[in-house]
Amino acid sequence: MPGSKGGRAIPRKYRHGIWNLDYTGVTGTDNLYAPDGIIKDAETRAADIYGSSHCFYLVNGSSCGILSAISYISEFGKKIIVDRGCHISALNALKLCKMESVFASPQYISEFGITGQISAEEIERLLQENPDTAAVFLTSPSYYGMVHDIRTISAVCKKYGKILCVDAAHGAHFAFSENFPECAVRAGADIVIMSVHKTLPAPTQASIMHISDNIDAALIKKKINIFQTTSPSYILMTYTDVAVCYMYKCGKKTFDRLCKRMSRFKEKCKLTVVPTDDFSRLVISTCKTGKSGFELSDYLEKHGIIVEAADLYNVICICGKGNSALDFKRLLKYCNRFSESSLPPLEPPADMVLSKGNLSGNLNLPIIEFDINDCAGKLSAETVTVYPPGVPVVFEGERFDTSQTEYISRILALGGKTIAVNNGKIKCFIENN
């Protein structure tokens, strides 16, 4: 193995590129399950660069890291404080580990219909109310480039003797420029999961996990080995090492140049650019045009510009090393053309349309599919997620309210994508009268 035979078995016209890196389990390639050679060296380099006690390579993406981290936390207690805007993989982990979750609510920025920071005061309040909590799990930065004050929250967690775990899937680049917020590792988080592939030059699924001295390295490695494939991709591991080392060497210059290009774009763009904590996360609001973010995304795509994601009120662009001055020039041209509209402005809802976290304890009930418009008041039998970014609108076992059903319907009507909605229907539990 692998059957590619270093690329020799691949059809000739597809053989170019990275196939000569596709090896596993031969002399000299080390073992990701128990590294003591080149993989260990690469992990040590990444730990030194980011400033962590240990670094572990993840070849199943940050989702694997989140599952492993929450499984580790479950060894120390069955209750956890969770960011209400967490990724679906965190909820899957909570369900798998039978964890009780207490949800921390972020600030809501109603002007743009997005969530912002969770305050340290909110975390301390929840820790005081829930002394049996084992850990705090936060997502920072968010999909919209918003960052919590991890340093202050870390101090709060240490005060109460709790683990702080940060899903920093979108923050692997923070360590390479002072123009970014402080990296969660350096800010004092105990477990930090990063998707190298999201913001650094690495292939999809290339990710890493950092831990502090407060974490049992042997135990968390055991958890990672449970969830991680036994056939790790050396292509992913090689380019993880390449990406981290390259950005350590050239990241400051790269991101300084990017910062200047984005500043010029923001000055000239006629659409409203949302202020974000991560300057490289370009969030463009369409509210003043009266059109949805989905419509801007479709318009840009017709002109050869593919954005990261869209929602009802914004488009999101992840900008990095691979974006040229020409990219920004073209984006500016078509954003300014799109801004010319006589429609009345859109008004996002006054409150966030995210799961409230009010879950039913008894889910051993029959299930029937209902039209979305008939789901208000019913218990969802699915976790309904808008993807991207993969943040749940309704959890399994949560009772729908009208704002959620209307929000899901509107997303689908305008071309958005959801998980667990099939042909306009959602599975719900049937409760006894």
Could you provide a short overview of the structure?
Helix 2 packs parallel to helix 3, helix 2 crosses helix 7 and helix 4 packs parallel to helix 5. The chain has 11 helices and 19 strands.
Describe this protein's structure.
- With 433 residues, the chain is of the alpha+beta class.
- The chain has 3 domains: 19-247, Aspartate Aminotransferase, domain 2 (3-Layer(aba) Sandwich), CATH 3.40.640; 253-338, Aspartate Aminotransferase, domain 1, CATH 3.90.1150.150; 367-429, Molybdopterin biosynthesis moea protein, domain 2 (Alpha-Beta Complex).
- It has 11 helices and 19 strands.
- The strands form 5 sheets. Strands 1-9-8-7-6-2-3 form a 7-stranded mixed β-sheet, sandwiched between helices.
- Strand 10 and strand 11 form a beta hairpin.
- Helix 8 packs across helix 10 (325-338).
- The termini are far apart.
- 46% of the residues are buried.
Work out the count of structural domains. Answer: 3
- The run of helices and strands is HEHEHEEEHEHEEHEHHEEHEEHEEEEHEE
- Sketch the major β-sheet: 7 strands, mixed
The CATH topology of the largest domain is what? Answer: Aspartate Aminotransferase, domain 2
Q: In the CATH hierarchy, what is the superfamily of the largest domain? A: Type I PLP-dependent aspartate aminotransferase-like (Major domain)
Evaluate the radius of gyration.
22 Å
Q: How far is the N terminus from the C terminus?
A: 58 Å
Number of H/I helices? 11
The number of E-state strands comes to: 19
Q: Which structural class fits the helix and strand makeup?
A: alpha+beta
Shape: globular
Mean pLDDT: 92
In CATH terms, what is the architecture of the largest domain? 3-Layer(aba) Sandwich
**Helix percentage range:** 25-40%
Assess the beta-strand content as a share of residues: 15-25%
How would you write the strand order of the largest sheet? 1-9-8-7-6-2-3
